[in-house]
Structures are given as structure tokens and as C-alpha cells.
Recover the amino acids of this structure.
């Protein structure tokens, strides 16, 4: 396992670099990739991001300036905020086994790179990228802005329990570069489309409670997305909704990706280890935030999730 200084030294030897982000890209993977790409270019390196088809309206502006063209063939491949090759987008799968450096912060990280660095205690992978970039040279506003997106989105604008003093220290250092962090906060945390509000209302109307109302299951079937004509941007970070319900310490959001294929997102308190629950179903993540993908009719998948929670929570009651 590499240290920050060793990682910086390794990156100095790289050129013609392609950076990978995970499926259904969030602010952390996009922000990390964009900032790292900017930092590598500042060193005179040729670096690009592999296009990701899952980008939303909010993350696209940070990604597009660094996207690779079809004709780019890398000599080195780096991944950011990807815990497992199972999270590679389809167009990244040809690079399985070719990742020269994997940078991550998930406890479930699978060390698939030829070289790896992980900081599982970090609230966001952006914190680790910040230290790596700082070891490479001055952090410019062009690097700081996507890094602020990375750190703020993975902490719910510094409201989630994963936020640490170090998280705030990194955010403060990024803000001091003069970036427009207020605009980031407005777009990501204080703006919702009407379609997004309709999605949330429907999810709350149909949610189910278990375990003395401590576990909430919310669903987003394809039919709901079609009914309100919602886009991926409208559905971004819907998993945060359930955790806001008073008394709930395990919120499960089930999003139907394709017929009878469900993406699970767990947000939990201290009582439930989200990673342990999702690992049973082939997923992973953090103690308080993890995910998995399972197949089957909604009711069967719901029951499988409840069984996984019950297996990992001694005081679970049906």
C-alpha cells in the first residue's frame, strides 16, 4: 500500500494518463478525477478522463473539460473513488487488469490496481486527492473547485456523520483559494427540480417501515420515473431522503435500473453497519453508507434486504 508521498512520486513518472470514474458517478468520483487531471496537466502531463455515460447535469460541467476523445490511447490508467472493478462503467471494463494506480477511501476497497492507496477513514476520496495534489505542487482554484464538490457532496454539505475535523480543514483550504463555493452549495444542496419534488413525494407516500419503525424502505420503480418524466439529474442522491425521517436509523432506497434490477443504497446510524449488510448481497461501501445491486421482483428483493439487515442487527424485530 502506497503512502501519499510515494503516490505523488509514482504519478510524476506517469504520462498519457486516463482516469476512470465509477458507474452512476457522484460528486466525489467526478471531483476527484477532474482535480487530479488538472493537477497532472499542471505538471505538463497529458491526462484525460474516460467519458462516463452516467453523468448528471450537476456533475457534467466539472467533467467535460477533461473528457478524452475516441482516439486517445493511454499508457497509464488511474482510478478514483472506485472500490471494485464491478463499479467500472461498461466502457471502462477493457481496462480491468490495466489500472496502474487505484485511489480510494472505501473500507470495501479491493486493491485491484497494480499500485494502490486507500484512506478508509476519510469522509471523501477528495480528502486523499487533496493531499496527493498538495505533494505534487500548489493547488490552484482549477483543482480546488472540483475537490470542493468531491468533499462537500460525500458529506452532505458537511452534515453527515462521516465528516471529521480533517474534512473541514481540507474544505477551508480549498475555500481559501478563492473558488465560488457558494454556487456549488446552491446547486448541489439547495436546489430541486419540480420533478425531483414529485419523486420525493411519491417515495414518501409508498415507503414501508420495519423494525419498530427504525428501518425505512423507499422505492423508485421505473414506472415512477416514467410517470413524472424524471431524468437521472432529478434522481441524483435520492438515497439521502430516508435518513431524514425522525426515528429511522437505517434507510434503504431501492432504485429500479432495469426491469427487476434494483440498486440498493443504505444510509445508517451507529446500530447498523451498512457495509456488512450490503456485503451479503455482493456490494459494499462505508459503515454508514453502502450499496449493492440485486435482481428479482420488488417484494422478493425487499425481503432479501430485510433478511440481510436482520442477520447483521441482533435486536432487529420483524
Amino acid at each position: 500500500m502506497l503512502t501519499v508521498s510515494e503516490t505523488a512520486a509514482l504519478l510524476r513518472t506517469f504520462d498519457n494518463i486516463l482516469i476512470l470514474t465509477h458507474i452512476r458517478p457522484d460528486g466525489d468520483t467526478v471531483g476527484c478525477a477532474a482535480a487530479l487531471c488538472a493537477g497532472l496537466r499542471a505538471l505538463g502531463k497529458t491526462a484525460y478522463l474516460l467519458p462516463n455515460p452516467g453523468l448528471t447535469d450537476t456533475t457534467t460541467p466539472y467533467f467535460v473539460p477533461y473528457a478524452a476523445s475516441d482516439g486517445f490511447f493511454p499508457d497509464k490508467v488511474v482510478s478514483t473513488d472506485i472500490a471494485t472493478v464491478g463499479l467500472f462503467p461498461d466502457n471502462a471494463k477493457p481496462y480491468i487488469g490495466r489500472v496502474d494506480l487505484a485511489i480510494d477511501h472505501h473500507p470495501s476497497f479491493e486493491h485491484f490496481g497494480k499500485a494502490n492507496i486507500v484512506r478508509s477513514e476519510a469522509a471523501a476520496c477528495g480528502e486523499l486527492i487533496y493531499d496527493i495534489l498538495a505533494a505534487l505542487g500548489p493547488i490552484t482554484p482549477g483543482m480546488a473547485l472540483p475537490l470542493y464538490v468531491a468533499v462537500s457532496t460525500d458529506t452532505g454539505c458537511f452534515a453527515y456523520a462521516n465528516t471529521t475535523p480533517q474534512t473541514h480543514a481540507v474544505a477551508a483550504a480549498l475555500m481559501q483559494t478563492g473558488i465560488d463555493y457558494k454556487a456549488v452549495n446552491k446547486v448541489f444542496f439547495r436546489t430541486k427540480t419540480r420533478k425531483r419534488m414529485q419523486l420525493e413525494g411519491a417515495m414518501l407516500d409508498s415507503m414501508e417501515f420495519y423494525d419498530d419503525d427504525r428501518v425505512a424502505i423507499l422505492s423508485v420503480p421505473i414506472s415512477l420515473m416514467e410517470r413524472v418524466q424524471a431524468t437521472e439529474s432529478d434522481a441524483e442522491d435520492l438515497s439521502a431522503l430516508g435518513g431524514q425521517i425522525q426515528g429511522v436509523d437505517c434507510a434503504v432506497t431501492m432504485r429500479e435500473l432495469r426491469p427487476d434490477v434494483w440498486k440498493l443504497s443504505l444510509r445508517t446510524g451507529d446500530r447498523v453497519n451498512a457495509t456488512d449488510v450490503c456485503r451479503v448481497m455482493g456490494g459494499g461501501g462505508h459503515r454508514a453508507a453502502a450499496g449493492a445491486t440485486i435482481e428479482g421482483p420488488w417484494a422478493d428483493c425487499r425481503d432479501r434486504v430485510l433478511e440481510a439487515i436482520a442477520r447483521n442487527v441482533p435486536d432487529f424485530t420483524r
The longest helix spans residues 27-42. Residues 219 and 254 are 5 Å apart (CA to CA). The chain is about 35% helix and 15% strand.
